[in-house]
Amino acid sequence: MLRWIIFIAIYIALGFYVLQALKTVTRYPWVYFTYMGISLIVLLNFIYQFTWGEEAGRVLSRPKSYAFGFLLTIITFKLITIIFLFSEDIFRFLTGSYHKLFGGTKEFSLPERRRFLSLIAMGIAAVPFGALLYGMYRGKYNFKVLKYNLEFDDLPSAFDGFQITQISDVHSGSFDNSKKIEYAIDLINKQKSEVILFTGDMVNNKAEEMVPWKETFSRLKAKGGKFSILGNHDYGDYVTWETEELKSENLEDLKNLQKEIGFDLLLNESRYLQKGDDRIALVGVENWGRGGFKKAGDLGKATESISKDDFKIVMSHDPSHWEDVIIDDDYHYHLTLSGHTHGMQFGIEIPGWVKWSPVKWRYKYWAGIYKEMGQYINVNRGFGFLGYPGRVGIWPEITVITLKRKPLT
Q1: Disulfide: which of 51, 99, 225, 322 matches 326 by Cβ 3.0-4.6 Å?
Q2: pLDDT digit string (tens) for 271-297?
Q3: Tell me: the pLDDT tens digits for 112-156?
């Protein structure tokens, strides 16, 4: 309760601070009341969803995501505006103090706010405000196909040109537009890859979230097969279950759903992909994450039935597994496919110039292709979204990777 009181007090204080900028910019009372009304509605909705809503607590339901998204949008606008206002207030205070001490002024008074600075502050704050709203309205379904060619000295010759489509972090519990999801499924099928590999987080919390989308995802086609693994959200760890039996049933339901969709779910297991007399090993580990994330992944168990000399592709949801375990293993893993980070669903990417997101402070490998010790990893930016119900700058991703045999020189 104390945390709620502190949060509400800070939120209201920020709101009144920004109101001063509005009063400097315009004299129309309806503008003030509209601003205060929207701020109050957003706050009350957030409090309701996270305390008395249908799924209060840790469960990341769709109403809670939107409550958080609108709150984030409003707070971002306020904070950026306040940065400018506070800077001006420091100057006003110093000016008033100087006039009081050295200017012969009997009473201390602050100079009036400058209208043009308030306009600049609110204009700049409007940019991320608009971007966050756009991300919630359209950015979350702005699917991008990213293509990579990766060369290997020891790729079996029959697999030269072998094409893989990777998707990750579906988070079906967040979807709210069936036509956009159908479009994305068609886009995946248009790539005509040999295999489709899904690297975890099919749901936010419960298997039932995937049921409405089962038929849509069953339309995914790949002549070489569809393979999947589990991500941290698939285990139901973020739900308060009445019994452990219900939690176990939920996981079994999700496993069965994946099979019904047509995925071969790899639970610390491996498969061979065959082309003629050549083959490559596909290794699928359960979730293994650094810190407080589940460590169900067992690389040793997953590779029991393959050879050290095999060409190997690993599916592991969390890229920290690659960084902490896989690249230092006795086996050489040519390519690892991960997801998990979502690229934080927010950032700036201009190919060949800049790639930035706040998530880089948490994960060294957070989006795209990386190479260390002769081994590659692709960190998929995610198909769906979670928490903030949108994407800004870091768009939903369908990865297409073509394996190439490096020519002899």
Answers
A1: 322
A2: 999 999 999 999 999 999 998 899 999
A3: 666 777 788 889 999 999 999 999 999 999 999 999 999 999 999
Q: HEC string of the chain?
A: CHHHHHHHHHHHHHHHHHHHHHHHHCCCHHHHHHHHHHHHHHHHHHHHHHHCCCCCCCCCCHHHHHHHHHHHHHHHHHHHHHHHHHHHHHHHHHHHHHHHHHCCCCCCCCCCCCHHHHHHHHHHHHHHHHHHHHHHHCHHHCCEEEEEEEEECCCCHHHCCEEEEEECCCCHHHCCCHHHHHHHHHHHHHCCCCEEEECCCCCCCCHHHHHHHHHHHCCCCCCCCEEECCCHHHHCCCCCCCCHHHHHHHHHHHHHHHHHHCEEECCCEEEEEEECCEEEEEEECCCECCCCCCECCCHHHHCCCCCCCCCEEEECCCHHHHHHCHHHCCCCCCEEEECCCHHHHECEEECCCEEECHHHHCCCCCCEEEEECCEEEEECCCCCCCCCCCCECCCCEEEEEEEEECCCC
Place of tokens 């049933």: 249
Contact 167, 396 (CB under 8 A): no
